[in-house]
Amino acid sequence: MEWWMWVVGGVLLLAAEVLTPGSFFLFFFGVGGILTGLLAKFGVVTEWSLEWIVWSAVSIVTMVMFRPTLVRLAKNIAPANLDTYVGETATAASDIAPGAIGHAELRGVPWTAENVGATSVAKGQRCRVVALEGLKLKLRAE
User: Fold this and answer.
1) Which of 12, 117, 129, 132 could be a cystine partner for 140, CB 3.0 to 4.6 Å?
2) pTM of whole model > 0.70?
3) In order of start, what are the domains of the chain with their CATH numbers?
4) How crowded is residue 142: how many other Cβ atoms within 10 Å of its Cβ?
């Protein structure tokens, strides 16, 4: 595989991580892809089979070593007054089916949101915040 394909794939995985609710799995596979691409560019890794082995090994080793710390840090960056968000009105930034995860805006800030109600929430619809789980809003349609 060309070195730049690894880098582009890694960047796409990093971008996809932003869209997921803080799981930090795609992040490490993206880092592994970028590192594999750089190693291939500078001739350290020359065979395609070795590239896949390096990508897999780097991704898994870094995930095992650093994911617990990243998850803990992500939970610690939440504002202290999150309990005041319960009961407020948020605006759905995407369509969210019952039980599905999407995006919403609250106080001008984008959030990951889960629809805990029985009805779908349409993009732009007002929702009531019923709970907070980490950095994810739990919403119900108004």
Assistant:
1) 117
2) no
3) 3-76 (no CATH), 82-141 (2.40.50.140)
4) 11
